[in-house]
Amino acid sequence: MINLYTDGAAKGNPGPGGFGTILEFKGKKKELSEGFRMTTNNRMELLAVIKGLEAIKKSGWEVHVYSDSKYVVDAVEKGWIKNWVAKGFKGKKNGDLWDRFLKSYYRHQVKFHWIKGHAGHPENERCDQLAVAAAESDDLQVDTVYEKEYYAKGS
After folding, report:
1. Which of 28, 84, 103, 137 is most buried per CB count within 10 Å?
2. Percent of the chain with pLDDT over 90
3. pLDDT at 150
4. How far apart are CA 106 and CA 104, in angstroms?
């Protein structure tokens, strides 16, 4: 079994953002993080899960995802994502990331757990630190899909 802890952050929402992810397997931990110059908190929360799942190279693992994002946890656990897929994500934000998420999600046996953010959970606090540091770094990537949509709206 692999434990996957995640968090996302955005300064301004939209604004500079980042994600933090911790993979835990057999007592060993691997941290991942990355920052983007223009994005949203929800995109970073979802990308944290995606990057964690994509980092698991072999298929078929039991993966327990711990996230403080109701958006991500409820979309999967309450089955919202099934309806979104059936409608081709019409009218839904972040369809590009949800599509990417599903590719990794179906490779494993994934169970989501919601945890309260900023409540002292050690891995969640660490993921928050990673996400904030990534959002504040000088090496920010371009969230191409988001920026294209954002600037097309004249925002």
Report:
1. 84
2. 88
3. 74
4. 6
The rounded mean pLDDT for the chain is: 95
pLDDT at 14: 93
Is this model's pTM higher than 0.85 or not?
A: yes
Q: What is the per-residue DSSP string for the chain?
A: -EEEEEEEEESSSSEEEEEEEEEEETTEEEEEEEEEEEE-HHHHHHHHHHHHHHT--SS--EEEEEES-HHHHHHHHTSHHHHHHHTTTTT-TTHHHHHHHHHHHTTSEEEEEE--TTSS-HHHHHHHHHHHHHHTSS-PBP-HHHHHHHHHTT-
Tokens of 148: 């294209």
Please tell me the distance from the alpha carbon of residue 102 to that of residue 124, in angstroms, as a whole number.
23
Q: Which residues are catalytic?
A: 7-8, 45, 68, 118, 128
Token pair for residue 95?
Answer: 């369809």
Residue (of 153, 48, 150, 147) closest to 104 by Cα position? 48
